[in-house]
Amino acid sequence: MKIKTTLYILIPTLISLGGKAQVIDNFSDGNFTSGPTWTGSSADWIVNNSFQLQSNNSVANSSFYISTPSTLATTAQWEFYIDLKLATSGANYADVYLTSSASDLTAIATSGYFVRIGNTTDEISLYRKDAGIASGIKIIDGTDGIINSGSSNGLKIKVTRDALNQWTLLRDITGMGNAYFSEGKITDAGLATSAFFGILIRQSSSTFFYKHFFDDIEVKQYIPDLLPPLIQSVTVISANAVDVLFNESLDISSSRQAGNYVAGSLGNAATATPDAANSALVHLTFGGSFISGFNYQLTVNDIKDLAGNSMANGTASFIFYAPYIVHHHDVVIDEIMADPTPQVGLPNYEWIELKNTTDTAINLNSWRIGDATGLSGRLPGFILKPDSFVIVCSSSASAALSLLGNVVSVTGFPSLSNTAGTLFLQSPQNTIIHSVSYTDKWYQDELKKSGGYTLEMIDTKNPCSSVGNWKASSETKGGTPGKKNANDAVNPDKDAPRLMRAYTTDSINIVLVFNEPLDSSKVGASTNFSISDGIGVPLSAKAVSPMFDRIALKLNTPLLPKKIYKVTVSGVSDCVGNIIGKQNNATIGLAEIANLSDIVINEILFNPTPASIDYVEIYNRSNKIIDLKQTFIANRNSTNLISSSTQVSTESYLLFPQDFMVVTEDAAKVKAAYIVENPDAFAEINMPSFNDDKGTAVILNIQGQVIDELTYNEKWHFNLIANREGVALERIDYKAPTQLQDNWHSAATAAGYGTPTYKNSQFKINDGVQGEVKLSPEIVSPDNDGQDDFAMLEYSFPSVGYVANITIFSASGRPVRYLQRNAVCGPSGHFSWDGLGEKGQQLATGVYIIFTEVFNLKGNKRQFKHAIVLARR
After folding, report:
1. Cis geometry, peptide bond prior to residue 342 (ω within 30 degrees of 0)
2. How does strand 861-870 pair with strand 779-780?
3. Could you tell me which of 97, 33, 91, 90 has the C-alpha nearest to residue 65?
4. How far apart are CA 336 and CA 338, in angstroms?
């Protein structure tokens, strides 16, 4: 039955055809009172919300009808859809009058031909009813048991009467009208005129009320079918069986003759079985097996359609491919259209492309596409030939993309993220054949990553590499669906896999994280792994799908709290066979949640150059192993509330004591702009914003407790730096207060104005001199080269409550800088001098005196004098 839409073209019901009538009604106009006009008891019928004619009679043991004018009686064809949602019987059935002498179908005087659907034997039969006789005469006796469902009997019925008065009764139990089976033929010329077409219902009790549905009624002149059937397709089912689909319904007796089918050297088919539901489909088996890869020609003769037209020398070819055990990367995802908007030259749909990398054809039947949210529906049968491609997409995209290459559509096609996503290809045996975890950085082109271009794999023999083996398509249309990638080139992976880090999920489960996918089939025995301090070889080792860049270890002996272990790996390889090298170990331990000052902000770049990007470096100054999954970074908004809180890592990431971690949105930009000692010590996230002039960076734990906080100001930079873009502020002392301005200084010029992932260029530490004020160094050269850029006065007193005044004098005794006035001191700390004068001006080289006076509220006072040389390099 056809799908209705809300746009209707109203076709006049009665069209003059040589004095004869035509009826067309699909009830799309929502009524039966016009276009055409049906008569009978209007209360007994409705047009329902599905635009079907439905019975509405609720009288037991009743008969009711509806009819419309129709004068076509000879050389005619009648077709209609019917669904009886009931169990038919001798008292419950429907009569569809093809011809009727009167509108009242219940009158004894009415004559005509009708199809009875139902009755005692649940059949579809043709009757002739003569005037004055209460019951009709069955002239075609249909197959018993066709109408055998008690809940739904939807089917299409077609009846033809040719010029020689031969009647043919056909039914299609699919309801679609393209798979008719014959219920029989008869020649009957008893009645040659008609005035009406109509429907008569007989029902017995309330069980059968409202359960009769009709649609797609058409009465038209019969045009004889004079063309023989054609082969539409041949599908290989097994090593000795194919399905042959024809373009029309077949005569069953001829289609089941195995001798009518010949397949080259195999000869005649051994069996030919018409499909039970589709009369245009025949299942063939042969006595011998097909040769894999051989092109067979099927020849068909003497197959007839329902009109008796016989096929002569119909041909079609088919190729059988022996079952192939698919291995990892035999088929790869080699092109991704994740962001089709704005359009460049390809249809505005998301899709992926698959490539067969082997020399053997592979059937994709029942394969699936997966992402982080789940699996798609199963792919249909499709033979992906060696070194060939197929586009996989949603059904809505299929028509547009089929113009560009071979296409298979799948239900539940993943919604592809524009910025980052994981896709994988799964075989019917639930094996991950290939996986890709892409980001928009893979485009390697700022313009193209905004949309309209695909990501293309460069070398499909290197299927596990990430950004180094992918880039935006160089094709001017935006991509190469269905054909070789524009970026196709030799790009081998020669690098050994690296163990980047490890983390624990509990005391006996460890996850190892590698820089690339591994060969999951060669992870090897647990003896390839060892944990220090008596833990030894794990109980088991298993690669983690779908990316296989992680290995899960289960231990025999649990790890102890507050203890750091070392895990060592040997023997594993990446997916092209490179064996792991020297970077094969990582530290591991049980993590704790960070508390106040366990983690401190150690360096911040808040005013990057146009080519760089903000970053915040954090430092674990505690003796804890801290999980960054339970750590957050934020800022404060204009009302001073914590805002834009973001998880530092979405999966467990261990920060060990005295380790650094750089948090940024784009690690590649930081690595390009600065010297980086540990390229793995980066966490890429959607960063909170930090203003170029001033702002606040906040570190929190998972309970929302502030661990550390820095309210910075660009004025904290060294005054003689004219351009502060790209210059990071560095912490001088891990132990000193974060918010102390004297504990921050511009990163040294010699260090490239930033030291992400390693010790700061301006790092100093208070050595805790007791009861003294100590100066270091004694010669300063404030040129921001990272060497003696400032002087530090480190103090230590036996108690709190001391206040300090610090003045810098020239050699002539003139004060040049009031460094501190009434500064409240703790038991220990430091003050720094950047070599500049009171107004931030550059001072002349020479000897200066730092005069420090310390007193407390009890009146105790102490003075310190330190000579210092101001020099230039």
Report:
1. yes
2. parallel
3. 97
4. 6
Distance, in Å, from the CA atom of 40 to the CA atom of 13, rounded to the nearest integer, reads 18
C-alpha–C-alpha distance, residues 556 and 535, integer Å: 7
Q: What is the dihedral of CA 634, 636, 638, 641, to 10 degrees?
A: 110
**pLDDT, mean over the chain:** 91
What is the C-alpha separation between 27 and 199, in angstroms, rounded?
15
Q: Tokens 């064809």 sit at which residue?
A: 77
For residue range 346-392, what is the model confidence (pLDDT) as tens digits?
999 999 999 999 988 898 989 999 999 999 999 998 989 999 999 99
The answer to whether 683 and 661 have CB atoms below 8 angstroms apart is: yes
Quickly tell me which residue has 């792991």 as its tokens. Answer: 580
Let me know if 310 is exposed, middle or buried by CB neighbors in 10 A (0-12, 13-18, 19+).
Answer: middle
User: Exposed (0-12), middle (13-18) or buried (19+): which is 388, by Cβ within 10 Å?
Assistant: middle
3-class SS at 296?
strand
Q: How far is CA 230 from CA 18, 215, 357, 414, in A?
A: 33, 30, 36, 38
The predicted structure's pLDDT at residue 17: 36
Residue 786 falls in which region: left (phi positive, over 0), alpha (psi -120 to 50) or beta: left
Joined together, the tokens standing for residue 248 give 């029309």
Residue 8 clears pLDDT 70, i.e. is over it: no
Least Cα distance to 868 among 851, 859, 857 occurs for 851
CA-CA distance, 573 to 493, in Å (whole number)?
12
Sign of the Cα pseudo-torsion (220, 222, 227, 230, in order): positive
> Which among 599, 613, 759 is positioned nearest to 677, based on CA atoms?
759
Strand partners, 620: 599
How far apart, in Å, are the Cα atoms of 222 and each of 73, 144, 155, 375, 657?
10, 28, 21, 49, 90
Cα 709 to Cα 135, 594, 712, 715, 756, distances in angstroms: 96, 14, 10, 18, 19
pLDDT of amino acid 762: 81
| Secondary-structure breakdown of the chain: helix, strand, coil percentages, each rounded to the nearest 5 | 5, 40, 55
- Tell me if the bond preceding 546 is cis, omega within 30° of 0: yes
d(CA 688, CA 641): 13
Interatomic CA distance for residues 384 and 678, integer angstroms: 44
Model pTM? Answer: 0.62
Structure tokens at 709: 């906080």
Tell which residue, 591, 584, 580, has the closest CA to residue 568.
584
Cβ neighbours of 782 (radius 10 Å): 21
